[in-house]
Automatic annotation (TrEMBL):
Top-level division of the source organism's lineage: Bacteria
Protein name: Oxidoreductase
InterPro entries: NAD(P)-bd_dom_sf (IPR036291)
Length: 126
């Protein structure tokens, strides 16, 4: 049965995450449960707070939402984040939440814009 409402969280609120967040925030069929970024003042984090969405600097808080979360989008491009998310899903036996990484986001944003969108990532350690 198709979803009427997608419960989503985003990790990464900078140059890649912010345009994605704008789109998610404007979609009536998306409930944005949270946004994580190491920089609490990242543009997407500020936007999320302005729109009443919880923000954190600890991305694992979002991963621990369990089956309340349908889709967890990671646009950090950081392999350590990707691995930590996989571990959390296995350790918590979470078979519900889908993890979507930056390559899928790049494809979706490119399809929406009708041209290849390049993602930008600052080097950050998590």
């Amino acid at each position: 049965m198709p979803n009427d409402l997608f419960r989503v969280a985003v990790i990464g609120a900078g140059e890649t995450g912010t345009p994605l967040l704008r789109t998610l925030l404007d979609a009536p069929f998306v409930e944005l449960l949270g946004v994580a970024d190491l920089d609490a003042e990242a543009p997407g984090a500020r936007l999320a707070r302005e729109r009443g969405v919880a923000t954190t600097t600890d991305f694992m808080e979002l991963a621990r939402l369990g089956d309340r979360l349908d889709i967890l989008i990671d646009v950090t491009g950081v392999p350590a984040v990707r691995e930590a998310l996989r571990r959390e899903m296995l350790d918590s036996d979470n078979h519900h939440t889908l993890i979507v990484h930056e390559t899928v986001v790049q494809l979706i944003l490119s399809l929406l814009s009708g041209q290849l969108v390049r993602l930008k990532h600052d080097a950050q350690d998590y």
